[in-house]
Amino acid sequence: MAIPDDAKDKATTTYNAAADYYDTNSFWERFGRATVERLQLPLGSRVLDVCCGSGASALPAAEMVGPQGLVLGIDLAANLLELARTKAAERGLMNTQFRVGDLLDMRLSDTQFDAVICVFGIFFIPDMPAAVRALWHTVRPGGKLAVTTWGPRFLEPATTAFWNAVREVRPDLYKGFNPWDRISDPESVRTLLREGGIARADVVAEANTHPILSAGAWWSAVLGSGFRGTVDQLDAAALKHVYEANRSYIEGSGISSVETNVIYAIAQK
């Protein structure tokens, strides 16, 4: 069973487009690395990173497992994978592989990994329990699964300003692509894991912020995130309106940061 075409196409298109600004958002690597640190991977571990993006968790995992280990990164967005390959080469991480793949149809010849990671990706799958089951299946006995997702109020208060501006010009697009809101509290994450066949997991909510030093920095965050899928559906006039509304909000409100609350879940098989 593969991801339904509409969900797959939406995620693929959004993040292939977002690749040009994706790595300007340092929170990807910040939380990818934090996820890996929570796993405490031994040297020589074999790691699968699904929805790996540009390597925010795959590359720290490759550093941790050492040359004798292996990290396989899978993502739908080929443009993000190219960024990951480039960064791996620059860092001399020859123990990495990256390939385009579907979480629900990974076609792995070996499904026994010491650790499986999915950071900010599980919510893109319409049938999230099926996604959890697919990930859990690839974990060897004694191995670990790490799922990291956004907590409540993703990039607030600026997110509200973004969606309000979108609604003014394209009400049909209002909150049309924000799947991370589906599991934004610890109990919903625990419920999801149970529905996916995982009875016990360590689930931790962590409050965080990300600095927004200018209106330009906020717009880069928009273009390098899941909001890109909405932005790219705007015509020139609507795009100008949304951009100007966001610029005015950031400059007028005086905010210097947005919320980047995170939920970490780790289960051992």
- Mean pLDDT rating: 94
SS summary, helix count? 10
The number of domains:
1
**Helical residue percent band:** 40-55%
**Which structural category fits the helices and strands?**
alpha/beta
CA(first)-CA(last) distance = 23 Å
Strand content: 15-25%
Which fold name is given in CATH as the topology? Rossmann fold
Can you walk through the features of this model?
By secondary structure, this protein is an alpha/beta fold. It has one domain (5-154, 178-211, 259-268): Rossmann fold (3-Layer(aba) Sandwich). 43% of the residues lie in helices and 20% in strands. The protein is built from 10 helices and 9 strands. The strands form 2 sheets. A 7-stranded mixed sheet has the order 3-2-1-4-5-9-6, sandwiched between helices. The chain has a two-stranded antiparallel sheet with strand order 7-8. Helix 3 (58-65) links the parallel strand 1 and strand 2. Helix 1 crosses helix 4. The radius of gyration is 18 Å and the shape is globular. The mean pLDDT is 94.
Can you lay out the helices and strands and say which pair or pack?
Blueprint: H1 5-22, H2 27-39, E1 46-50, H3 58-65, E2 70-75, H4 78-90, E3 96-100, E4 113-119, H5 128-137, E5 139-150, H6 158-169, H7 186-195, E6 202-206, E7 209-211, H8 215-223, H9 228-231, H10 236-253, E8 257-259, E9 262-268
Parallel strand pairs: 1-2, 1-4, 2-3, 4-5
Antiparallel strand pairs: 5-9, 6-9, 7-8
Helix pairs in contact: 1-4, 2-3, 6-10, 8-10
Summary keywords:
269 residues, Rossmann fold, two-stranded antiparallel ribbon, 10 helices, 43% helix
